[in-house]
Amino acid sequence: MDKNRSELFGHFSYDDDLTYEVLLEVEEVLTAEMTSLLLRAGASHLDFTPRGDALMFQCVFEAHKLYVYRKIAFETATLLPEGVRGRLLCLDKDFNSLHIYWLRTGQWQEEERSVPFDPPQGLKTWKTGGAAI
After folding, report:
1. 97 contact partners, CB below 8 Å, separation of at least 6
2. How far apart are CA 8 and CA 61, in angstroms?
């Protein structure tokens, strides 16, 4: 059974005015700094994926601890260079809540969203065409 009860997804995007050489340098430094930060926070299974105009990452934690995610958001905002912005999505694997963070150089914002058990009113219902057996 999976002992990791929380997952963190990150996405960093670069301003268009960064040259390709600067972008590569920023990406290398950002990957190293984020790896160090996430490992100190207790993350495991780190996976970074450069996408040319963005850097994505994913990792897991044994527990969904809001103070850990807020510390990651705070520290990430302090290390982001000008021309880079980020977003973090923290998912409680029990589907109790998810947290979204928006990051810029020196600042961050947070929103918590509950994950309801039942779907919201008004969603289109897709039918499978057959009865369940």
Report:
1. 64, 112, 113, 114, 115
2. 8
Mean pLDDT of 94-101: 92
Phi-psi region of 95 (alpha: psi -120 to 50; beta: other; left: phi over 0): left
How far, in Å, CA of 101 to CA of 110, rounded? 5
How far is it, in rounded angstroms, from Cα 97 to Cα 51?
A: 28
Could you tell me what percent of the chain has a pLDDT over 90? 75
Burial class (CB in 10 A: 0-12, 13-18, 19+), 11: middle
Q: In the β-sheet with 6-14, what is the strand arrangement from edge to edge?
A: 44-50, 54-61, 6-14, 84-92, 97-104, 107-114
| 132 has pLDDT over 70 | no
Residue 26 has pLDDT above 60, yes or no: yes
Contact 16, 73 (CB under 8 A): no
Two tokens, residue 3: 């002992």
Tokens for 80, please give them.
Answer: 């982001």
- Strand, coil or helix: what is 67? helix
